Amino acid sequence: MNWYTYMVRCRDGSLYTGYTNDVKQREKVHNTGKGAKYTKSRLPVSLVYYEEFADKSQALKRECAIKKLTKAQKEALITGKEPL
To answer: 15 Cβ partners below 8 Å, 6+ apart?
Structure first.
């Protein structure tokens, strides 16, 4: 089973980072209001980025690393461009 670290963009433009073993299903769950407390009041969300990993531990470590990034750094990760 593969694991993923992902980012969704909320209605207010903010980004939420998480991990899952099914990216598309997780996006659907977020949009039902049951995905995370943070996204519940910021619906709808759309998947904007994900990375695939061989195990859950790697995905969790990457989630933690991404959450420490600034918004500009996260946006650069999404677009594949270096932040200004």
So the answer is: 7, 8, 9, 48, 71, 74, 75
Tokens 């997780």, residue located: 26
Domains plus CATH for the chain?
Answer: 3-79 (3.40.1440.10)
Per-residue tens of pLDDT for the chain, all 84 residues: 899 999 999 999 999 999 999 999 999 999 999 989 999 999 999 999 999 999 999 999 999 999 999 999 999 999 988 665
SS3 assignment, position 33 = coil
